[in-house]
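I'd like us to work through together how a protein chain folds, taking it slowly. We need material for that, and I hope you will provide a protein of your own picking. Go ahead whenever you are ready, and we will take it from there:
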Amino acid sequence: MTTTTFSDPPAASQLSRRRRMLVLAVCCASVIVVVMDISIVNVALPSIRTDLKTSVSGLQWTVDAYTLALASFLVLAGSTADRVGRRRSFQFGLAVFGLGSLLCGLAPSIDWLIAARALQGLGGTMLNPVALAIVATVFTDPAERAKAIGVFGSITGLSLALGPIIGGALVDSFGWTSIFWINVPIVAAAIVLTALFVPDSRAPRARRFDPVGQILMVLLLGSVVFATIESGQLGWSSPAILGLLAVAVLSVVGIVLYEMRRTDPLLELRLFRSVPFSSAILMAMFALCGFSAFLFVTTQYLQSVRGMSALVAGLSLLPVGGLIAFLSPYTGRLVAASGPRTPLLVSGAALALGGLASLWLAPSTPVPVVLAIFLLFGLFLGTGNPPITNTAVSGMPRSMAGVATSLISAARQTGTTMGVGISGAIVGTAVAHGGSAYTDAEQGVWWLAVGLGIAMVALCLLSTGRWAKSTAERAAALFEEVDRGAAAPEAAPARR
């Protein structure tokens, strides 16, 4: 009988089917806690505002500190795991995420909570992308791997559906701190199970560390988000906001000039020569910007304006998450059968229509009408996520698939961060007034959703035609030698 030591699980090729299922379960647990902590906190925002006596910008930072850390360090976390070992990185990420959750639950002030949320986000960067790489490594049979990745992906929709409900129940029963305490036992169990059952693996060719690119990335995202959130209080013409925007512009210039010279840049700019990839990055940002703005203003509309409890507000959002979880697998099959154009068009149109319909939301709008409008946002995200990922990686060589998906994930988190920042700046002090003052203010958010939906439709039409596919083929050709472990020949002399 073969025994398994605590410190050295068997190699992927030696794992039984039962063991592979255990690995998948552990990896899915990481998806649940990371994704749920994006949506679950929205239901708790009114309670956090009351208990910690914070402003709207404090609520924005409570959400954005987490997603900003995710967006800033996702690519670095994936390449680091490829280099030092995925199991080790996964365990470290679980430990950091658990510590961040513990500190969130102990937070005596909003500043403490924001710092702990950022720590949570840093841990989260080492969970989802690394977990997906572990799943792809453990399931060596292509058909079995496709099913496992499908399960992994559908957990995201399920987490979005369950987040507001679980969060609402916990907030009503035990207070807002309980939404963070619940992570601690889950993470502790996942650390032990990872050590027992998850095999270690590394990439055949790990990308080199790019500290300058990482610093420029943090400066760019941090300055834009800080300027967006604080603009409501300081004003766009204030010296501090203008200085932050100048830092953002200089960071973009620095990224372009520096990253083009590296063999293994943090941001592989050659990927952006593909119109489908560039469009997918923008669509991912627009989609999550729209959805996070919807969540941010809606949870406060349901509780502060309509007087719902946290649990009832969470249950009101169940149709949204449920529709996302239901549609995502079917959308994936549709993309595989006929391409991404149709679901992307449906997604963009649903977002625009959802924004238009939401313009008529008032404090006394009948609940069935409110829920029907919410369904448009579920339709939008349920039909949008799978084709966006497919569009990004379509035609790319295998050596770039991981980088492309990491950049798409970073774009989603950037969109989430910006959605909260922009929507919070729009509703501003109306949160405290409630009633029609809030519903009047949030109309700016719904017009934003309309614009984002129209932009997604335009990008879909641009990125799914014959010309766009030819640009993807030319971009893929640049990486042919990367597949053999070398830099592209046209760039090799200038890169280091």
Notes: The domain at 270-496 is CATH 1.20.1250.20 (Growth Hormone; Chain: A;). The chain has a mean pLDDT of 82. The radius of gyration is 22 Å. The chain has three domains: 14-204, 211-261, 270-496.
